[in-house]
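Case study 2.
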Amino acid sequence: MFISDMTSPDLNPGTDDFAVVPVGALEPHGPHLPLGSDTMISEHFARYLADDLGAHIAPAVGYGVATPAQRLGGTFPGVISITGTTFTALVTEVLTSLAGQGYRRLVLLNSAIDNIAFLCEAAREVAGRVSGSRVLIVNWWDVVGEDFRDALAAETGTDRRDDHHAGMVESSLVMHISPHAARPDRLPADGGREQPRRISYHLYPPPADTATSTGIVYSAAHATADLGKYVADQVARELTAAVRREFSAPLPS
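Prediction:
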């Protein structure tokens, strides 16, 4: 299922075959999660698509567009990013190359929010350039479901506004997906409730009161591997259903 594991004669896709490109980032996620958390999550769910749909998985795009420091809780070591121009060009060329091999069902499976606009730009370019192609951009949180997230917030007592980057759900996912890389023992005793000032706009340089001492902007209290499995199972089901639904219609001619 991994294209990089195939030999050249093995790679002979038909137009009905799916190619999934996991997309992530390399950036700090507090003291308890690895820098590559976003990429790990995307690769994990790509394997579900491979199992359920027979999809082929391309090597991940592990360098993303830089997340603003205010959403990382400040400036911490580990941000290795590329510009939006470079990122768009990279994804466009990867998709074009996959299409050149014969793939027409292309899925960009993303886990880093600041990549989205640039993924859309690449997808528009390729869909317009390659006849008969369809490109789906899906973030894992897009398919969780509103009712599921509301119920999860009620069950755990963690408000959804406190559950974004490196928060309870993402922390739980990584604890489940990659328990050897997660370090829940490094979480503050309160799970990270420093509560910096949150602003919805962007300001450079970021104000000092939007920073934290740990990089935990949102509470990771109540994060567990069991909760991660619960969320991952929901995402996997809904992700497969979304891909099947969006590719059920004939591809454009």
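The beta strands are 18-23, 56-57, 105-110, 134-139.
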